[in-house]
Amino acid sequence: MNQRETHPAPAQAAAGTIRLTAAQALVRYLAAQRTAAGETLFGGVFAIFGHGNVAGIGEALYRHREDLPTYRAHNEQAMAHSAIAYAKAHFRRRMMAVTTSIGPGATNLVTAAALAHVNRLPVLFLPGDIFVSRAPDPVLQQVEDLHDGGVSANDALRPVSRYFDRIVHPAQLLSALPRALRVLTDAALCGPVTLALPQDVQAMAWDYPAAFFEPRIVRFHAPAPVASEIEEAAAALRESREPLIVSGGGVLYGEAADALRAFAGRHGIPVAETQAGKSALAWDDPLNVGGIGVTGSSAANELANAADCVLAVGTRLQDFTTGSNTLFTQARLVGINANAFDALKQNSIAVEADARLALDALSAALGDWRAAPQWTTRAHHLAGDWRTTVASVTGTPPHDGALPREADVIGAVQRSHPQSADNDIVVCAAGTLPADLQKLWRTGTPGGYHVEYGYSCMGYEVAGGLGVKLARPGREVIVMVGDGSYLMMNSELATSVMLGAKLIVVLLDNRGFGCINRLQQACGGAPFNNLIDDCRQGRQGAPAIDFAMHARALGAMAEHVANIGELEAAMQRARAADRSYLISIDTDPAWPTEEGGWWWEVAVPEVSEREGVRNARTEYEHALAARAASGSQQGTVK
C-alpha cells in the first residue's frame, strides 16, 4: 500500500455504533467471519463490475481487498462456477461470494445458481439491482414487468436460490446476513443465497451496531441422529445378510470418510460410490466396489441388484444412481442424510442426521453384527475383478491408426505421475467423460475426484478447475474436457494465467457433442446436429479449430498431440510448467467404455417414420413393462 494512501475510519455516529453504507457493512461483515481453524470463511469475492455494483460494492471491496481478496473474471456464469467449485473442494467449509452488475450480469448467474442448488453447494450471490427510489426508472438494462413494478431481473434467481432477499434499506442487513450465513453453513439447507442489492441502497449510510462486525467463529450446523431412528435403521440391517452402502456427496461434506471406512470394515459391507461421493473411500480399498448406476462398475451394480438392504449415505438418489429406479428396488432402503427431503426418498427408513455422527451411532448400535461372510467375500472378489478390468481398459493402447478413447486418455494422464491417485484432482462435468471417469479414475484421497454431475453443466470444467486450484493450490488440478464444453466456456483459462493458478487442461476433441450423438442413435435417431460433420454448414464448411493456438492466445502454454504416447510425454511437460498448460488430442466419438453401466430411462418417441426409432421404442416399452411387472424384484432391465 502506498504510504500516502490512508483509510480513515468511517464516522462514528454514537457510542457503540458505526456509520457505514450498506455495501460497506455487508463486506465488513463477510470479512469478519472465521472458521474454527481460524481461516476466513469467505476465501474471496469474484467480481465483474458494472453499473449497479461498481460504485457501492466495488468501493467497499477495495477497502477490504487484503483480508477479503477480490478476483476479476471474464464471465459471470464462469466466475460463479469457480466460486462453487471452491466451496466443493473445501467440502463446504469455506466458500466465496460473487457480485455482478444489474441486467445481463445478474441473469448470467442463473445457470450457476441452479448448479449450486442441485448439488447442495454454498455460494453467496450479490447482484446489483435497480433503484428502490425508482427516480431514474427505467435504468439501463432494467427488465420491466408490466404487471409488477417490484420485479427486476434478479427475480429470475428466486427459484434457484435456497434463500433470496432484496435489501431495500441498510438496516435489513442486520437480519438478512445472519439468515444467509445460516443457509450457507447448514448441512440441510445448504445451497446458493441471493441478496439483491439495489444500487441506491448500496450507497445509503446507516448507524450499525459495532458489535455486528466483531470477528466470530462460524459453526457448521448438522443434525445429530435421533436414537429411535438409529435403532430402526440398525434393526433393518440386522435383518439383512447382504447389505450395500451407497456413498454420496454428504459423506465428503460431512467429513465422514474415516467413519465410512471404519463402518464398512467393521461390519463387512461393500461400498459403492455416486459421482459426488467418489473418493470418500480409496480406490484400492478391498470393500470399494466402484461407481454405482448408469455410469457405474459391473461390481457395484451386480451387488446392488442382489442386495437385500441398501444404506444410502448422503445421496439424493438421482436417476443415474438408481438406474432410473430399477437397480436396487428389491432391497430395503435406509437413508442417512442431513436433509429429510433426501433421507426419505425411495420410501427409505430415514435417519435425518450428519453422516459421520450417524455412522458412528449406527455402528455402536450394531455392535459386532456383520454381513454374511460369503457376501463380504463376494464383494472382495468383485472389487478385485473390477480393478483388474480398470487396469486392462486404461492400459490397452488403441489399434494402429485408431483414434484413442476416453479410457486411453484417462490411463495416460494417471500413468504420467506415479502418485497421481494421491496428488491429482481431476475436474470434469459433462459428456462421456464423467461416465468413464467414474468407472476408471483412481483416487486415494478425499476430494481427488471433482466431477459436477448433479446438473451436468457443460462449461463448468475450466472455471471449476480454477476454483479448485484456488482452494487446493498445493495439488495438481487436471481439467478433463471435451471440445464441446470447452467452446461453450473457456474464458477462465485466461483468469487462471492472470492469477498464477496453474491448471492442466486435457482437451479431448471428438469434433462435436459425441455423447449426445451416441444417445441420439441409441434412441433410433439419425446422426443430426451433434457432431460437426452432421450439422448445417455454409459454403466454407466447418472450421478446423486449433485449440492449442487458442489456449496460447489466452496466455497458457499449449500443444496438440497425435497419440497416447505423445500425450504421456506432454503430460510430463505440463506437470513441469509454471503456468496453465493445455494439451489437445483427437479422440473417437463412437467408442465409450462398454464395461459396467446400467439402464437409463430416456423417453423414445411413440410414433415415427423411422424404423430405427420404432425399434428403439419397442425396446423402451419392454423395459418399462419389465420395471412395472417386477414390482419389488427389479434388476432385469439393462
UniProtKB/TrEMBL annotation:
Residues 230-362 form the Thiamine pyrophosphate enzyme central domain. InterPro entries: DHS-like_NAD/FAD-binding_dom, Myo_inos_IolD, THDP-binding, Thiamin_PyroP_enz_cen_dom, Thiamin_PyroP_enz_TPP-bd_dom, TPP-bd_CS, TPP_enz, TPP_enzyme_TPP-bd. Pfam families: TPP_enzyme_C, TPP_enzyme_M, TPP_enzyme_N. This is 3D-(3,5/4)-trihydroxycyclohexane-1,2-dione hydrolase. Transmembrane segments: none annotated. Belongs to the TPP enzyme family. It comes from the Bacteria. Residues 430-584 form the Thiamine pyrophosphate enzyme TPP-binding domain. PANTHER family: 3D-(3,5_4)-TRIHYDROXYCYCLOHEXANE-1,2-DIONE HYDROLASE (PTHR18968:SF9), THIAMINE PYROPHOSPHATE ENZYMES (PTHR18968). Keywords: Hydrolase, Thiamine pyrophosphate. Gene3D superfamilies: 3.40.50.970, TPP-binding domain. One of its GO terms (biological process) is L-valine biosynthetic process. One of its GO terms (molecular function) is hydrolase activity, acting on acid carbon-carbon bonds, in ketonic substances. Residues 45-141 form the Thiamine pyrophosphate enzyme N-terminal TPP-binding domain. GO terms for cellular component: acetolactate synthase complex.
